[in-house]
Amino acid sequence: MVRYRRNFVPGGTFFFTLALADRRSSVLVEHVQLLRSAFRDVRDRTPFSVDAIVVLPDHLHTMLSLPTGDSDFSGRWKAIKSKFTRGVVASGVAIPRNQRGEYLLWQRRFWEHTIRDDEDFERCANYVHFNPVKHGLVSSPVEWPFSSLHRYIRAAIVPGDWGGGDDLTDTNRFGEHAE
Predict the structure, then answer these.
(1) What global pTM score does this model have?
(2) What is the dihedral of CA 132, 137, 143, 144, to 10 degrees?
(3) Which ranges of 6-158 does DSSP label H, i.e. alpha helix?
(4) Mean pLDDT to the nearest integer, 137-144
(5) Whether residue 108 has pLDDT greater than 70
(6) Domains of the chain: which residue ranges?
(7) pLDDT confidence of residue 164
(8) How many helices (H) and strands (E) does the chain have?
(9) Which residues contact 67 (CB under 8 A, 6 or more apart)?
(10) Nearest to 35 by CA among 13, 20, 15, 51
């Protein structure tokens, strides 16, 4: 069995990517209210802060910070995925099951990166917010409704036209390293 190495940093800030098993699905945006409810429910029981998030049809990117002394991001993701899945099933969406009876909505694993410093935080937040453009869903990040970019704009962290326009050069590719 593969043993995944996770960097469990108590009180850390982390970047995550979680994907649906069926990458052709759009259940995340079709049931975004259920996803928001799952986040709220789990956050009420096991606190964390959502520093940045974007929900795309078949996957999501988010940056979470955990409380001091707490490193259990895996438990939180298990609870969020489970709560969302149960909500989707209750809404009448047919989700296949495996031989053990487990729903096959999500990919089993997730990708995680520990945020190292302020520059890494900004790079990852930019990647999160620019992702709908990268996937061709919109021409400007502000057009995507399921993004914390709107919160960043309201708080004047970034300007209202952030990530738009024709000025996308190799030096501002929003989180991706120039090749």
Answers:
(1) 0.89
(2) -50
(3) 27-30, 32-45, 73-90, 118-134, 149-154
(4) 97
(5) yes
(6) 13-172
(7) 85
(8) 5, 4
(9) 11, 47, 48
(10) 20
